[in-house]
Design brief:
Helix content is about 25%, strand content about 50%. By secondary structure, it is α+β, with helices and mostly antiparallel strands. Strand 7 and strand 8 form a beta hairpin. Helix 5 packs across helix 6 and helix 7 runs antiparallel to helix 8. The radius of gyration is 30 Å and the shape is globular.
């Protein structure tokens, strides 16, 4: 009987102490992330904690004190760089972060809300001078967490999902200008670190941004049904796809410079595999319809498709070139420029193959003229040449001996008339008729250029 009481006492003690000790795994993860952010320019201005038997809540307020440090931190995970003019817009921005997690070890998920609390000092002063009422509106909008990211992060599996809060705002400015923002159904999920995930999926149901100034000039952007998926094994091995149903950009009321751009069913696929000694990069994109209209002209395209690849890439030289492309965005010194040039020459000296499986347009329209389209297939190979750098500087013509190419260009009678009349090209006279179309079979080999079996001199 005594043993049973001891067992029960130990069990009760564990149950009582477990949440009091807290979820050490989650706490350590949070503390490590916060320390990292503090090192790179985000300082804590407020920190509160509230804990119950079952869960714990933390509230942080961060102030961006050093934009340069924070920007360089982000550049460790992305090729994108914040433009210089963003420094003043971000310096001093205050960001609120609310975290909630269980005190029990079997649940290692963290719920996180991230939201801006105030604008930068420069933007605040500017708005207060120009339009105090609008500043108060923005201040209240941010106070009510009008812009908010919610993330559910699972520490053990390094997976996450979340959403961006819907926004529907309209406002009449002091000078009678109008602005409107409508963002709906933004959700995402992924795996890996939040700042540099290995897998990321996102979906946007609708974006509508609009502005009309006091003179009636209107600017607007609309995007419907955007989807994207990315898988990153490394900086040089990845697969990304994106597509959206509709996009529209409009500038109206200018009298001279009106613009209307529309597109539907855009698709983009980009992938790279540099795991083996020889690598490859693919890029595919297409759309059903695209139109561009101004006061001077109308241009439209139906059924565009592009399928291109860069094959037989030397892994070592490609990686070196990739690193220099990244570094050149941060440091534009003369020494780096020379190394960058040397890296390009090294990459070219290793050779590669560029292939266009399909580059085609079914139909297009210029003003009121309908034109049947074209199709292009091509392959260009640059052979490996250890003397490439020397030859291109001393005897550039020798480089041509390393190049071989072939292409097939099929185009309509409408295009034949346009090319022959408006863009005089000597090779067009060698085109052969094939049904309702014209064909150019082109080849370059051993320093000879051949079109439809005829050597061109």
């Amino acid at each position: 009987m005594k043993k049973i009481f001891i067992f029960l006492a130990v069990g009760v003690t564990v149950i009582v102490l477990l949440p009091l000790l807290g979820n050490k795994v989650v706490q350590d993860e949070l503390d490590n992330r916060i320390k990292t952010l503090s090192v790179y320019g985000l300082q804590i201005s407020k920190n509160t904690e509230e804990s119950t038997y079952f869960d714990a809540k933390r509230h942080y307020e961060f102030v961006l004190k050093d934009v340069d440090k924070f920007s360089k931190y982000l550049q460790r995970f992305s090729y994108n760089q914040l433009p210089p003019y963003m420094d003043a817009m971000l310096l001093g921005v205050k960001i609120g972060v609310d975290m909630e997690y269980s005190n029990f070890l079997f649940d290692d998920s963290i719920g996180v809300d991230i939201y801006p609390l105030s604008l930068s000092k420069e933007l605040t002063q500017d708005l207060q001078k120009t339009d105090m009422e609008f500043y108060k509106h923005i201040e209240m909008f941010l106070k009510d967490r009008g812009v908010l990211y919610h993330i559910n992060y699972h520490v053990s599996s390094s997976s996450f999902d979340g959403y961006f809060k819907n926004i529907q705002e309209e406002y009449l400015l002091k000078d009678s200008s109008k602005m409107a923002i409508n963002i709906k159904k933004v959700i995402f999920s992924g795996e890996g670190p939040l700042i540099a995930p290995t897998v990321l999926k996102s979906e946007i149901g609708h974006i509508n941004l609009g502005f009309i100034d006091e003179k009636g000039v209107e600017l607007s952007l609309k995007i419907d049904d955007f989807f994207s998926t990315s898988n990153f094994e490394s900086n040089s091995t990845y697969l990304s796809t994106a597509n959206f149903k509709n996009v529209e950009y409009k500038v109206a009321g200018t009298q001279r410079n009106d613009v209307l751009f529309k597109g539907s069913n855009f698709y983009l696929n980009a992938s790279s595999n540099i795991q083996n000694e020889k690598g490859e990069v693919y890029l595919k994109n297409s759309f059903d319809k695209m139109s561009f209209k101004t006061n001077l002209m109308t241009f439209a395209i139906d059924d565009f498709n592009s399928d291109m690849a860069l094959n037989d890439i030397n892994k070592e030289s490609f990686e070196e070139l990739r690193v220099f492309l990244f570094d050149s965005k941060i440091n534009n010194s003369n020494g780096l420029d020379k190394k960058f040039e040397k890296s390009i020459l090294k990459f070219l000296s290793k050779g590669f193959s560029f292939n266009i499986a399909d580059f085609s347009i079914d139909k297009f329209k210029i003003d009121n003229k309908n034109i049947e389209g074209f199709n292009l297939m091509a392959n260009v190979t640059l052979k490996e040449d250890s003397d490439f750098s020397k030859n291109i500087q001393e005897v550039p013509v020798r480089i041509l001996q390393n190049i071989s190419a072939k292409a097939k260009f099929v185009f309509s009678k409408d295009m034949m008339n346009i090319i022959y009349k408006d863009v005089p090209v000597k090779m067009i006279k060698y085109a052969k008729k094939q049904g309702d179309d014209f064909v150019l079979n082109m080849k370059y080999e051993n320093s000879k250029f051949i079109i439809n079996d005829k050597v061109i001199k």
